[in-house]
Amino acid sequence: MGFFNKMSEPVFLKRNSGLEEQLEKLKGLEPLLNEEGKAKLRQDIRSLEAGILGEQNIAFELANSHMPMYIIHDLYLRDGDLTSQIDYLVVTRKICFVIECKNLYGNIEIDNQGTFVRTIEFGRQTRREGIYSPITQNQRHMALLRKLRLEQAKGFLSRFLRGRSFDEDHRAIVVLANPRTVLDARYAKKEVKSQVIRADHLVDFIRETCEDSRAAELSDKEMRNWAQSYLDMDQEQESDYLRKYEEYKAYKAPGRVQARDLADGGAGIRERIIKDLRSYRWNTSQAEGIKPYMVFNDKQMMDLLEKFPADKRELKQVMGFGDVKAEKYGAEIIEILDKYRG
């Protein structure tokens, strides 16, 4: 470690996620749904609340680690149709940890095939069920993260060196955030067992892994730049979690609404506009041979929905739309929005 390094405590570059906002929106839906829809909604709310609690447990452990690290909570990645939502990305002086948080009820067993089995007790009854492997889920996060990381590099040699070192300086782990969960991994293979830990062991695991690493320690500046390169990848997350309740609404929203109605129960219509805008963005990027975000990114698309411009002059008031973009894409964007304008 350099003599001039001063950082000694963890720093959150991004602390909040969209889960709390999502929870509030779900709770506001209940009066609009029929009885079947309300039952499904309450189940989803319970699952979401459990997920929030689990992530809060991990945040507490990281915040009290007394280690120099940068923490990014809820990193959302997108590359074309590929998406990935990383619960926590933790950048230390040697290793970047990609953390998948699981706040599971019941006890977890991992067999020698890497299969995850959960056992839940209901009074005198016991139920065993297989669950989707969080290790597989995290591997997909890592694959997309690696791809985007290499795309940041300039030049063939830089990409080659970054790709070769990626597996050495990144570590994917699954953290069981429920303190009551009992983990039985005695029959699991070593490479599987090493990727699943309890939340109360997380900080010790990070510290020991860094101590065992032979990598050179990064300076404060290098560590911050590494973390910032990932934060720059973060996209505005667009979820269709409201769409699944459309069929359970006690009434149907009209097919065409005023722009101001989008914030007042027009979730289904809002999703259709987003779908049309994303389709236009994708087709345009393919025709021009550029990345979709270069047409407009997700934050700019949300600003489009907020301002709902009626002409190119108003479009220029939208984030990221100057004279060039307004002239180049304006007519077609306005045409899309006009379909939903009353």
The averaged pLDDT comes out at: 86
What oligomerization state is this entry in? single chain
- Strand order across the biggest sheet? 1-2-3-4-8-10
Q: What does the overall shape look like? A: globular
Q: Rg from C-alpha positions?
A: 23 Å
The number of helical runs is: 11
What does this structure look like?
The protein is built from eleven helices and ten strands. Strands 1-2-3-4-8-10 form a six-stranded mixed β-sheet. The chain has a four-stranded mixed β-sheet with strand order 7-6-5-9, with no helix packed on it. It is α/β, with parallel strands linked by helices. 44% of the residues lie in helices and 18% in strands. It is globular, with a radius of gyration of 23 Å.
Brief rundown of the structure:
This protein has 342 residues and is an alpha/beta fold. The chain has helices spanning 19-29, 35-63, 134-152, 156-169, 190-193, 202-212, 220-231, 267-288, 298-307, 312-315, 323-338, and strands at 10-14, 69-79, 82-91, 96-102, 107-110, 116-122, 125-131, 170-176, 183-184, 196-198.
Question: Could you name the key traits of this structure?
Answer:
342 residues, alpha/beta, 6-stranded mixed β-sheet, 4-stranded mixed β-sheet, 11 helices, globular
